[in-house]
Amino acid sequence: MIIVKQTVHFGAGNIGRGFIGTLFSQSGYHVTFVDIAEEIINKINDEKSYHVTLAAEKKETITVDNVSGLNNLHQEKEVIKAIQHAAYLTTAIGPNILPKIAPLMARAISERVRTTDEKLYVIACENQIGATDLLKKEIDAHLEEETKERLADKVYFFNSAVDRIVPMQDQDSLDVLVEPYYEWVVETNESIPPVQGMKIVEDLAPFIERKLFTVNTGHAVIAYLGYLKGKSTIDETLADEEIVKQVKETLKETGAYLVKRYGLDKEEHECYITKNIERFKNPYLNDSVTRVGRAPIRKLGPEDRLVRPTTEAQKAGLPYTNLAKAIAAALLFDDPEDEQAVEIQDMLKENGPRHVLKNVSGLDEDSEIIKEVIRQYESLKG
Ligand SMILES: NC(=O)C1=CN([C@@H]2O[C@H](COP(=O)(O)OP(=O)(O)OC[C@H]3O[C@@H](n4cnc5c(N)ncnc54)[C@H](O)[C@@H]3O)[C@@H](O)[C@H]2O)C=CC1
Ligand SMILES: O=P(O)(O)OC[C@H]1O[C@](O)(CO)[C@@H](O)[C@@H]1O
């Protein structure tokens, strides 16, 4: 009897289908996608495969098969059953959603550790430092003490960093357009079943900080400055030399912090910055500034891509004026379609930028950073 390797992935969206699900399928796994989007789940079950196309001049396409779908809103029993047989349990749903799926994962894990000693590896693939730690904390909160004791040597939680630009897709199709580049870094000392394209490291911190504070900080600066200048896509924004200059200046600031903190080679890091700005210019992605700037409350959080490098630079005695400008530009992102942008604009109208920076970004009201951001905010507002 051939035993098919199984994996369960929460979030059949851009990264789920276009990156993590693809790598598992290519590694010989059957991928069960779990999502609340009924139409996507039905399509996955009807079509049983989809295409992933590389956004490049030569549009290579691969077929991803061996996939099925479950809706966690009304197929809880089936999701729990699928997790009983999985080697991996991964997510790409947005860090804010992790607490919502934790109760169901906790039920599945409780049942699993009572019936099998097979190992399960849980990995959250989100743009956030310590996303799997957060998921574990939420799962733990729903586990009995007795179950928690059984987890040792059976259920493992690994933090990870995921890097692949996957823009908004045609919502009527399962097919996904992705950039050719990708990097998936997972932190563990365990020997785990191989997954094509998964890079294992002992210490994720330099990888995730380098990625978050270069790729994501840079991307966010482009999105917010582009939005302010009325641009609609990232590549269109990068045709504006003034913005390119501003992105480079900002990444010099995050770079100085990263080089100092992790002892990175300065020249190598400069090449990493240049390589990423080239990635952003990809004209085949047609990536919108509103997608990249989405959810500004999350992006202005104390540990996220804008505020964390700023506070770290200040602590290290390094410059942060350009980062302060990026934070100011994020405050001015008023996309009416984005719930968090609307919320920030309401907060700004009612209580002003100091209040937002204190309550959303966790900055000290009297700090030099707040003063600099407000100065930049007033100047950008014109
Ligand atoms: N799109 C990109 O280029 C990249 C995204 N990421 C990260 O990957 C994560 C996912 O991003 P995308 O795939 O772009 O988002 P997406 O919006 O395309 O996909 C998210 C999926 O999660 C589903 N979902 C929402 N709530 C759910 C719930 N309670 N239970 C199950 N499924 C639920 C949605 O229906 C959607 O299909 C985010 O953390 C993002 O920051 C990381 C690197 C690249
Ligand atoms: O997915 P988030 O965290 O909302 O932010 C968008 C960012 O994530 C990415 O989708 C991929 O890293 C980038 O395109 C962008 O910097």
Automatic annotation (TrEMBL):
Pfam families: Mannitol_dh, Mannitol_dh_C
Gene Ontology BP annotations: mannitol catabolic process
Residue runs in coiled coils: none
Cell division is among the record's keywords: no
Class of this enzyme: oxidoreductase
Keywords (A to Z) from UniProt: NAD, Oxidoreductase
InterPro entries in the record: 6-PGluconate_DH-like_C_sf (IPR008927), 6PGD_dom2 (IPR013328), Mannitol_1_phos_5_DH (IPR023028), Mannitol_DH (IPR000669), Mannitol_DH_C (IPR013118), Mannitol_DH_CS (IPR023027), Mannitol_DH_N (IPR013131), NAD(P)-bd_dom_sf (IPR036291)
Signal peptide as annotated in the record: none
Binding site for NAD(+): 7-18
Tree of life domain: Bacteria
Domain Mannitol dehydrogenase N-terminal: 6-190
Catalytic activity entry: D-mannitol 1-phosphate + NAD(+) = beta-D-fructose 6-phosphate + NADH + H(+)
Keyword Transcription regulation: no
Listed GO MF terms: mannitol-1-phosphate 5-dehydrogenase activity
Residue ranges annotated for the Mannitol dehydrogenase C-terminal domain, each copy included: 203-380
E.C. numbers: 1.1.1.17
One Gene Ontology cellular component: cytosol
PANTHER family in the cross-refs: ALTRONATE OXIDOREDUCTASE-RELATED, MANNITOL-1-PHOSPHATE 5-DEHYDROGENASE
Family in the record: Belongs to the mannitol dehydrogenase family.
Protein name (Swiss-Prot/TrEMBL): Mannitol-1-phosphate 5-dehydrogenase
Organism expressing this protein natively: Alteribacillus bidgolensis
UniProt gene name: mtlD
